Structure formats: structure tokens, C-alpha cells
Amino acid sequence: MKLSVPRETAPEERRIAVSPDSIPRLLALGVSVQVERGAGEAAGFSDQALEAAGATLAADPKSCLEGSGVVCKVQPPNLDEVPLLPEGATLVSFLPTSASPQLLRALCGRHITAISFELIPRISRAQAMDALSSQASIGGYKAVLMGADRLAKIMPLQMTAAGTIPPSRVLVLGAGVAGLQAIATARRLGAVVEAYDVRPAVRDEVRSLGATFVELELEAQEGEGGYAREQSEEFLAKQRELIGQRVQQSDLVVTTAAIPGRPSPVLVTKEMVEGMRAGSVLVDLAAEGGGNCQLTIPGEEVVVNGVRIVGLRNLPAMVASTSSQMYARNVATVCAHLVKGGELSLDLSDEITNASCAIHAGEIRNELMREAALGGVGKS
Ligand SMILES: NC(=O)c1ccc[n+]([C@@H]2O[C@H](COP(=O)([O-])OP(=O)(O)OC[C@H]3O[C@@H](n4cnc5c(N)ncnc54)[C@H](O)[C@@H]3O)[C@@H](O)[C@H]2O)c1
Q1: Which of 3, 181, 324, 336 is the most exposed place for a label (fewest CB within 10 A)?
Q2: Is 136-313 in the same CATH topology as 2-129+320-375?
Q3: Model confidence over 307-320: pLDDT tens digits?
Q4: Atom of ligand 1 nearest to the CA of 260
Q5: Of all protein residues, whose CA lies closest to atom 19 belonging to ligand 1?
Q6: Residue 227 falls in the annotated catalytic set
Q7: What is the pLDDT of residues 31-67, one digit of tens each?
Q8: What are the boundaries of each domain within the chain?
Q9: Residues sharing a CB contact under 8 Å with residue 80, sequence separation 6 or more, in sequence order
Q10: How far apart are CA 69 and CA 184, in angstroms?
């Protein structure tokens, strides 16, 4: 069976779904691996390196995809790419439940089976397949580096003959995978770090990284399986009131509070930003879902009253070599789960396959996606 990896076409996507390290693992499954020429270039993986690892190269997307049983990608295909997917092929990529109804219907039209990384269950057996975590961790790291680079101050305490410079103060809102990596990175740079999360369970993890956990007198709604759920507007209003002063004292604020499948809650208001010192920076990792800051413009970087608000999307793609290396490992682990003796063998009674298989041979299995695709009939 042929496994193919076409070049990513989404704007500014620099990652790739295989790496020189992951190709031998895929070959060991008894499949052949074909990569489109240049697909690894932006991640620092040359055609020669991918070929030396055992892949064959294809000149264009059409010849790359032709005859393949499994197609591995980072981003979901766009509507122009779907007709190139072989009928009945299995797609392994990110595919959010918010994917457009037309895309879902187009995939069904080609009898595609789609394994979505957003739907991999977060159980310990699936940890090596958890691309949401591997990529969020890179995002948290990059958010702090971007913030540090944009500050007109240094992060660490400096005691020199030219005077004593106090350390920068960093506030991290949301201490999930990205938030914890942001805390660790800011600490390594020497900042004084505080963090807050609605899940009190993360208090010890925050402290073990050398940050202070901000205690707010608030009672959050518990989610399932350790996840946060959407909080009431009353809760969020109280939270904003209590967190406002901390935001205003910080040089760098990194917000990471996302609710799966829902718009991001507003944690930082326009008024709070107005109270921040000029030269401060806010990096909003929740920009994709609208942002945790009221003034975030997704995909853009703006300055309001001297405060820089960074709403750039897809930070992992800015660290494409490492993020591809990790993503490729996630992809290879998913493939090892699905391929037996060189052929696909989907066991839908298996918890991981059952949860992550969004579409099976053209039938949408995920409820949210099914509703969207049916509800969206006739809409563009
Ligand atoms: N394999 C596993 O077992 C596994 C894998 C990954 C994650 N997890 C668990 O899931 C947690 C969250 O995962 P994630 O990083 O993908 O989460 P996420 O990206 O969905 O959310 C980021 C963080 O924002 C927090 N948040 C939400 N609303 C908030 C608010 N109003 N104020 C402050 N914080 C708010 C959440 O509690 C979460 O910690 C992890 O920390 C971990 O405990 C488990």
C-alpha cells in the first residue's frame, strides 16, 4: 500500500507530516512512502534527506496522491485538493469539528475515511498520537519568545555596575499544555511568572515550574476528563474583575484559554489593556477561537495605547522543524495503530480508532460534523 505526503498548501503552513526519522517507522509497517518534491523544504527536510530515509519523490500533487491508500497531511485538504484524493483513501490530518460543511460533503463524495487528530482521545494509550498536545507545547514556547522579543525590556534580573534591573513579570492565563510550556520558557528566561487556570488541579504543576499560582475566590464549573468547560458569563465577569490588576502589573501576558469546539472566553478586556503600561505585550494563543483578549485581531499584531497585542495564528508552523518532527511521530504512531501487515485494518471497536475516525468510507461518524454537513446542505 502506498502512503503519500503532498506538499501543504495552506498559507504560512511550513510543517510536513513526515520526517527523516519517521519514514523508517512507516516503512517498517510494510507500506511505501511517497512525498511530493519540496514538501519538507520549509521545515528544513530536504528532498535528499527524505529520499535517503527511504521515501520516493513525486513531481506534483497528482502523481503523489495517485493510487495511495493513506494520505498524511498537517492541514485538512482544501476543496481543490479533495478531487485529487484517491476514491476511498484514508486521510490522517488535523480536521476540526468546525470544518466547513462543503469540505465534509466533498470528502464524503470521494468515500474518504478521515482520521482527525482533534478527535484522538486524551487517554494514556494515545499519548504518542496526541498532536494537539505536541503542537500546543511548541506554541506555548514560541509565544513567550515572541513576547520577549517584542518587549523593550529584558526578562532576567540584572545586577551590574550600571544599576539593578528588576526581572520582567509574566502572567500566563490558562495552564494547559501550551500554558505550562509558556511558564517553563518564561522561567528559563529569568522572568517572574504568575499563572491562573480555572482547573485548580494544575496548581501543583504551575508551582513545580517555579511560578506562582494565582488564587481567585471563584468556583469554576468542572468539565469532564480534566478539561475545562465553558464558564458562565457571571463567572467570567468576576474573573475579569479579579484578574485585572495582575494583567496591569505584567510586562508580558500570554493567554492560552481555549474551550474545545467553542469560542475562546474573553479574559482580558479593552479597559484592562488600557490600564497596562506602554511597551507591554500580550500574546493571545487563543486567537484562532476569536481570542482571550477583547482587542485581539486574529491573524494580526496591533498596538493599542502602546500595548502590543499579538494575535498571530499557527505559532507551531513558525518552529516548523521541531513541530514537524513531533507531528511526524504522532502520524507514524497513528499509522502503526491502523496498518497491519502493510494494509489498512480499521477496528472501529477500538476506543482510539472509534473516537478519531470522523468519516468512514464517506459516512460521517462524528455527530457535530454530521449535523454541520446536513445542516449546511445548500449553504455555501
Ligand atoms: N493524554 C492525556 O491524558 C492528556 C493529554 C493532553 C491534555 N490532557 C489534559 O487536558 C488539559 C488541557 O488540555 P489543553 O492544554 O489542550 O487545553 P485547552 O487548550 O483546551 O485549554 C487551555 C487551558 O485553558 C484553561 N481555561 C479554560 N477556560 C479558562 C478561563 N476562563 N480562565 C482560565 N483558564 C481557562 C483550561 O483549563 C486549560 O488548562 C491538560 O492540562 C491535561 O490535564 C491530558
Answers
A1: 336
A2: yes
A3: 999 999 999 999 99
A4: 20
A5: 258
A6: yes
A7: 999 999 999 999 999 999 999 999 999 999 999 999 9
A8: 2-129+320-375, 136-313
A9: none
A10: 41
Read off the pLDDT band of 223 (50, 70, 90). low
Architecture of domain 136-313: 3-Layer(aba) Sandwich (3.40)
Beta bridge partners, 310, equal 283, 301
Pocket residues: Cβ below 6 A from ligand 1: 122, 124, 127, 130, 132-133, 136, 173-179, 196-199, 226-228, 231, 239, 256-260, 265, 267
Instruction: Specify whether 229 is catalytic.
Output: no
Output the DSSP codes for 5-74.
EPPP-STT----S--TTHHHHHHTTT-EEEEETTTTGGGT--HHHHHHTT-EEESSHHHHHTT-SEEE-S
For residue 277, the SS3 value is coil
The Cα 168–Cα 172 span in angstroms is 13
Widest Cα–Cα separation across the chain: 71
3 state SS of 349: coil
- Cα separation, 119 vs 92, whole angstroms: 11
Tell me the best of 137, 206, 253, 256 to mutate to test the pocket of ligand 1, counting ligand atoms within 8 Å of each CB and taking the most: 256
DSSP string, 133-182: HHHHHHHHHHHHHHHHHHSSS-SS-EEETTEEEPPPEEEEE--SHHHHHH
Q: Whose CA is nearest to atom 21 of ligand 1?
A: 258
Give the H or E element holding residue 242: helix 233-249
Query: d(Cα 238, Cα 218) in Å, to the nearest integer?
Result: 8
Alpha carbon distance 140, 149 (integer Å): 14
Rounded Cα distance, 22 and 25, in Å = 5
Task: Identify whether 127 is a catalytic site residue.
Answer: yes
Q: What is the pLDDT of residues 313-339, one digit of tens each?
A: 999 999 999 999 999 999 999 999 999
* Residue tagged active-site, from 46, 127, 232, 245: 127
